[in-house]
Amino acid sequence: MTFDRLCRFEAKGSAFVSLGDSVDTSTPQGRLFFTLVAAFAEFERSNEDLAAARARGRVGGRPTANPERLELAFRMYDAGTFTVAEICKQSGVSKSTLFKYLKARGSRQGR
Q1: How many helices (H) and strands (E) are present in the chain, helices listed first?
Q2: How many domains does the chain have?
Q3: Is the residue at 61 inside a domain?
Q4: Residue 60 lies in a domain
Q5: Distances (CA, A) of 29 to 8, 36, 41
Q6: Are residues 45 and 79 in the same domain?
Q7: What is the pLDDT at residue 23?
Q8: What's the rounded Cα separation, in Å, for the pair 10 and 4?
Q9: Domain that residue 41 falls in
Q10: Helix axes 95-105, 84-91, angle to 10 degrees
Q11: pLDDT of residue 35
């Protein structure tokens, strides 16, 4: 039984009672137990979906920054004649992305 189905039963004034497992959704403890079981089941399904996507070659996450734009930003930064705001505007790289890649590159960030 899914959580949605349980909600539909409760909306009609019915409750789920499992005689074998001592679960009674007419009590707060029974609803809590059922909600927790439903949450764990949903979590397992989402993990299975992620595993299936990875098996198909999908890795997820944010895409990496455009290498050409980063190279322009690095050249401007290394020149030392541009402000960070100018670098970001000209290269189209956000400030946080610029500093993230500069840190990974090992550059100074004292601007």
Answers
A1: 5, 2
A2: 2
A3: no
A4: no
A5: 19, 11, 18
A6: no
A7: 79
A8: 10
A9: 3-55
A10: 100
A11: 85
Overall pTM > 0.70 = no
Give the model's pLDDT for residue 94: 94
Q: What share of the chain is helix, strand, coil (3-state, %, to 5)?
A: 60, 5, 35
Per the domain annotation, does 73 fall within a domain?
yes
Q: Name the phi and psi angles at 81, rounded to 5.
A: -105, 0
**10-residue averages of pLDDT along the chain (111 residues):** 68 80 83 86 89 86 88 95 96 94 74 49
Token pair belonging to 62: 């944010």
Written as six digits, the tokens of 91 are 């290269």
Both 79 and 51 in one domain: the answer is no
Q: Is residue 77 classed exposed, middle or buried when 0-12, 13-18 and 19+ CB atoms within 10 A define those classes?
A: buried
Q: Phi/psi class of residue 63: alpha, beta or left (left: φ > 0; alpha: ψ in -120 to 50)?
A: beta
Does 110 fall in a domain?
no
